[in-house]
Amino acid sequence: MNDEISPNYHPFDSATILDYVKQRPELSTVFRADDELIADEVGDGNLNLVFKVWAKADPERTVIIKQALPYLRLVGGDWPLPVDRARIEAEALKVEYDLVPEHTPKVYFYDAEMYLFAMQNLNHHVIMRKGLSEGIKYPHFAEHIGLFLAKTLGMTSDLVLDYRTKKEMVKRFINPELCKITEDLVFTEPYRKTERNAYHAELEPQVLALQADEALRVEVAKMKEKFMTQAQALVHGDLHTGSIMINQQETYVIDPEFAFYGPMGFDLGAVIGNLLLNYAAHEVRTPDPDARADFRAYLTGTIIDLWHVFTREFQRHVWDQVDPINMPQGYQEDYMLRLLHDAAGLGACKMMRRVIGLAGVADIRGIEDVHDRTVAASLALNIGQALIFERESLRTIEDLVEVATACEPVVPWPAAKA
Ligand code: SR1
Ligand code: MG
């Protein structure tokens, strides 16, 4: 997998990265030759080294250096990973920046020997998942992410690109090892007994019942097939709320190392599914019923709004540009409906994996009290199952929200259902 790794490659640390940064001409617009620089390794994700570097005299002059390790950081040396993913991520960021610079961090350069890139430090933003878990609302998120999704998905698809460019893009973003992680962790392992699943004991009766449900495994298999075979657009591939940096004014999408040509519904479903995971977490995170209802109305309103922004911008940037003889109105409407169904089904899989499998989300796994965690997890699993089973009956985004909000946690799981 890493057979052709550059002989010059070595992982940096927060001391060695300083000289490296000083020698990079691409950063001369940020740092001066006589600057005293400081670096801190701040990576808290699953896969990479992430260095924040800044000028001591002016911390606003700062960059992020992200370097791929040849193994999965979450697990260690036992799980090798291709370092080429740093190239994929840097190139995906450049594609996204060309389309939506207002929601994509700027990349300064990619180093093909060190498998790292330098990018804008979003030092006035927080990871959205953290903010949402604290009950913070982001009023512009729906508008921002709807635009991001419409442009990055629509404008990298066959609907807009010419036949040759599209195929060249597919080739450039072939990402088999990271796709395999998704195939395993999202679509396979949650539905069987494996060592890597990581739910707590109190949830086990519901997980075992879910795994025993063959009808569910049929629907998940269809979603996995879609993920593996539908090269529809350049998808981010991991667009959960931990891949979004946000504040009250701005939204940036980071971390597209899982980018590849896949179904648009995978990104749409990731955003919606992660907002619904947060919705489930507030079952216990916000005990006051009025405060809970208020925050949930924000979350579900955001899902509805982002979909409407997505369809409005998709109309403008895609459908208004196509040949209506080849793609008549009826085809366009059917396409958008299929995207809704895909978003529901793929988003459902993204929800269920975060409850059962390796790499859960802090919204739910961060709930300290185990019983409370079971309640939130149970609700998330029930929403996931309802969405995947009912996806093809949905006509509107409001229908999707109605299906999700009709779900309840089931704790304790009744013996007869197990
Ligand atoms: C083994 S990597 C675990 C997860 O982290 C990333 O964010 C992806 O979601 C991946 O599935
Ligand atoms: Mg990531």
Question: What report would you give on this structure?
Answer:
The protein is α+β, with helices and mostly antiparallel strands and 418 residues long. The protein is built from 14 helices and twelve strands. The protein has helices spanning 16-22, 85-99, 128-133, 141-154, 163-172, 176-187, 204-211, 214-229, 264-285, 289-317, 329-356, 362-365, 370-390, 397-405; strands at 37-41, 48-55, 58-68, 71-72, 76-80, 107-111, 116-120, 126-127, 233-235, 244-246, 251-253, 260-262. A five-stranded antiparallel beta sheet has the order 1-2-3-7-6, with helices on both faces. Strands 8-10-11 form a three-stranded antiparallel beta sheet. Helix 4 (141-154) runs parallel beside helix 10 (289-317) and helix 11 (329-356) packs antiparallel against helix 13. The longest helix has 29 residues, at 289-317. It starts with 15 loop residues before the first helix and ends in a 13-residue tail after the last helix. Bound molecules: 5-S-methyl-5-thio-alpha-D-ribofuranose (SR1) and magnesium ion. Residues 46, 72, 74, 181-182, 185, 238, 359 line the site of 5-S-methyl-5-thio-alpha-D-ribofuranose. The site of magnesium ion has 4 residues, from loops.
